[in-house]
């Protein structure tokens, strides 16, 4: 648990900067208008890529955490980031980029934080810091009716040789690589988007897809009639957190302070309930 710095949060709450309630979604892969030079957030004690703005990098094909509603990026992560920005007296700016570009973008200071249903792993901790957890994710397996995989046990059976679909850079990809491919029990194919992996499953290019439960449910529902279903057994359980540059520990502390308040007053739970249900 990261240390909560009361003074930093108190000063952040007194910022004279006007908080903006809207989000600006940039095209996929494009740069935020924040620029590359960090600017001081004044008395708050932390810096952001541009003064008065909290820039969030995400990959907006991960409902209900982030997805497009028309031209706007919406979802759990966007609303939580907006609530944090409001607490810190900042305007939120959201940019949609490839998932495996988020951590490099945060490392370089191009974006202040990455929020994309991202799990804390040892490998990622070598690159960035993570906030306190704000939600729990469950990795599940999508299969197609009549396919080779009918249970999670089939993935680990002696002589198994399944082809596993995942999204590049996700923990689903990492788990499948470590547990299945490295053990000689199958092959992992990675795709740029979860939707691409599901299309590969429908077309018979992969035998199953491993991804997070909530996006999995949305994708199965969106492909009604395709014979897709989610196996009952969970593949893994993990915590989601925000990625922040190791060079900006003051911002990490401020975000953790805001998160602590938002969890305590029920804001985070109300956002989760809005999208996932009680």
SSE map:
Elements lengths: L5 H8 L11 E2 L12 E2 L6 E2 L4 E6 L8 E3 L2 E3 L1 H13 L2 E6 L5 H6 L5 E2 L7 H4 L3 E2 L4 E10 L17 E6 L3 H11 L4 E6 L2 H9 L5 E5 H10 L5 E3 L5 E5 L2 E2 L4 H16 L2 H10 L2
Parallel strand pairs: 1-7, 4-7, 4-8, 11-12, 11-13
Antiparallel strand pairs: 2-3, 5-6, 8-16, 9-16, 10-13, 10-14, 10-15
How would you describe the shape?
elongated
What is the alpha-carbon Rg in Å?
Answer: 19 Å
How far apart the termini lie comes to 26 Å
**Which class of secondary structure composition applies to the elements?**
alpha/beta
Percent in strands: 15-25%
The portion of residues assigned to helices is: 25-40%
Structure characterization notes:
The chain is α/β, with parallel strands linked by helices and 278 residues long. The chain has 9 helices and 16 strands. The protein has helices at 6-13, 76-88, 102-107, 122-125, 171-181, 194-202, 213-222, 249-264, 267-276; strands spanning 25-26, 39-40, 47-48, 53-58, 67-69, 72-74, 91-96, 113-114, 129-130, 135-144, 162-167, 186-191, 208-212, 228-230, 236-240, 243-244. A 6-stranded mixed β-sheet has the order 1-7-4-8-16-9. Helix 2 packs across helix 8 and helix 2 runs antiparallel to helix 9 (267-276). Mean pLDDT is 85; it is low at 1-40.
């Amino acid at each position: 648990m990261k240390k909560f710095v009361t003074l930093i949060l108190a000063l952040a709450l007194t910022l004279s900067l006007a908080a903006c309630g809207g989000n600006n979604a940039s095209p996929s892969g494009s740069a935020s208008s924040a620029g590359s030079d960090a600017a001081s957030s004044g008395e708050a004690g932390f810096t952001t890529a541009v003064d008065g703005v909290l820039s969030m990098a995400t990959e907006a094909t991960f409902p209900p955490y982030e997805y497009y509603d028309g031209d706007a990026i919406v979802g759990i992560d966007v609303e939580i980031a907006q609530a944090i920005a409001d607490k810190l007296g900042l305007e939120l700016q959201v940019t949609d980029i490839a998932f495996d570009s988020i951590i490099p973008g945060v490392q370089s200071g191009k974006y202040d934080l990455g929020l994309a249903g991202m799990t804390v792993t040892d490998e990622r901790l070598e690159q960035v810091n993570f906030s306190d957890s704000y939600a729990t994710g469950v990795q599940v397996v999508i299969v197609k009716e009549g396919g080779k995989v009918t249970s999670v046990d089939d993935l680990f059976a002696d002589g198994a040789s399944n082809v596993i679909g995942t999204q590049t850079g996700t923990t689903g990809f990492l788990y499948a690589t470590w547990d299945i491919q490295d053990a000689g029990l199958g092959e992992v194919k990675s795709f740029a988007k979860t939707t691409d992996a599901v299309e590969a499953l429908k077309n018979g290019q992969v035998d199953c897809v491993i991804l997070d439960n909530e996006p999995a449910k949305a994708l199965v529902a969106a492909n009604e009639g395709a014979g897709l279903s989610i196996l009952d057994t969970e593949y893994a359980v993990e915590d989601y957190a925000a990625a922040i540059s190791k060079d900006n520990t003051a911002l990490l502390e401020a975000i953790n302070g805001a998160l602590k308040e938002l969890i305590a007053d029920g804001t985070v739970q109300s956002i989760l309930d809005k999208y996932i249900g009680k």
